[in-house]
Amino acid sequence: MKKIAIINQRYGLEVNGGSELYSREIAERLKAKYEVEVLTSCAVEYVKWSNYYKEGVEDINGVTVRRFKTEHERIPKIFSALDSEMLSNPDAPVELSDRWIEHMGPYCPQLVEYVDEHQDEYEAIIVVTYLYYTAVKSIVRIKDKAIFIPTAHQEPFIHFDMYKKVFGAADAFVFLTDEEKDLVHSIFHNEDVPYEVCGVGVDVPSEVSADRFRKKYSQYNLDSYIIYVGRIDEGKDCPRLFRYFMEYKKRNKNSDLKLVLMGKAVCDIPKHPDIINLGFVTDEDKFDGISGAKALMLPSKFESLSISVLEAMTLSKPVIVNGICDVLKGHCIKSNGGLYYKNFFEFEGCLNYLYEHPDVYEIMCKNARKYVDDYFQWDDIMKKFDDIIAKVGKTTE
After folding, report:
1. Contact, 328 vs 322, CB < 8 A?
2. Residue 47 region, left (φ>0) first, then alpha (ψ -120 to 50), else beta?
3. Which residue among 18, 179, 258, 339 has its CA within the 20 to 30 Å range from the CA of 78?
4. For position 52, which CATH number holds?
């Protein structure tokens, strides 16, 4: 059985995050055909990268996980100063770039050394997420077998001069969407490097119940609601969602619509009778809640895929997303199962349209499910992984 490695900044059952969950989904499926080993940090959170897990090797769902400690935590004050300096000088000298990426973290130099010394043991090394130290310092050491899954989106960091070398080190790419592929090609002009557009499969329970959700949270009178699922923070543009929703309620006084939030809150949530923060919930509550919603909201400007959007579509629920994000807008256009906005009045228009056009709404529900069925199936995705691994793999047996 051929051996492959996957490098991600965090990995574990307790870890939340789209890239990290994606890495675990891929690892647990690749193990059917390959000996899979994950190289990662000991961190469970991404603010300071504190060592949470024990350094060393463990097994998680049949996948070997090799952890390396964070040599020093991120110090917010120092990182903020370096970040400001980098943002004002994208073509920063190597010395500044190195200091910035070290504090971006997770600073695991032993992981990088391990990759350098043991890469010949692997048929291919899959590096996930372009932004962090673990990817930046590892991929440039890998010779002829680096498969890069950048999970890139339009943001200032990707234009830093230091990332030219990172993206130039890939022997093959896996992109989550066509929009991500087009973005990377437009910035780095690497169209000649082999690639696959794979996306991600979507797993939802075979049985969900909106009634069960409404009964469990009956104190909130959730007859009509939209839902947000995920990390509640400024990086996801949640404060703007709150402002827009409260303005919508002011202007549409007869509406009984509520906004339900699910996820960890790392920004302030306004105290409003129609904003319901449920915090962390079980998977059953999550999927039941999505199934009962009028639509799933995603206000983020920066997404490389969005599993929550695809989960909602799998449950035949339309989505309303930030049209500034090309990936999210692309989901809506390609599926005809979602709407997008760029300002408050478009936001208001999206909500009212769904309620005022029930026949169109039903068609959108069907379109959303069909989109996922057509493009986001695990069997098709894993076949593409086999193909790209075969292209870069070096036999070590």
Report:
1. yes
2. alpha
3. 18
4. 3.40.50.2000
Tokens linked to 234 = 């400024």
What contacts 358, CB < 8 A, 6 or more positions away?
none
The answer on 181 and 51 residing in a single domain is yes
Determine the Cα–Cα distance for residues 290 and 248; give it in Å rounded to an integer.
Answer: 21
Strands (E), 86-140: 124-128
Q: 349-366 pLDDT, tens per residue? A: 999 999 999 999 999 999
Full strand arrangement of the beta sheet holding 275-277: 275-277, 258-262, 225-229, 296-298, 319-322, 338-341
In a domain, 396, yes or no: no
> Could you list the residue range(s) of the whole structural domain that residue 14 is in?
3-201+377-391
Handedness of CA 98, 64, 282, 315 (dihedral sign): positive
Q: 59 and 131, same structural domain?
A: yes
Question: Do 160 and 130 fall into the same domain?
Answer: yes
Q: How far is C-alpha 5 from the geometric centre of its chain's CA atoms?
A: 20
Q: How many CB atoms lie within 10 A of CB 250?
A: 8
Domains held by the chain: number: 2
- Same domain? 25 vs 62: yes
Q: Indicate if 245 and 165 belong to the same structural domain.
A: no
Q: Which two tokens stand for residue 102?
A: 């070290």
Instruction: pLDDT band for 138, please (50, 70, 90 cuts).
Output: very high
Q: Is the pLDDT of residue 242 over 70?
A: yes
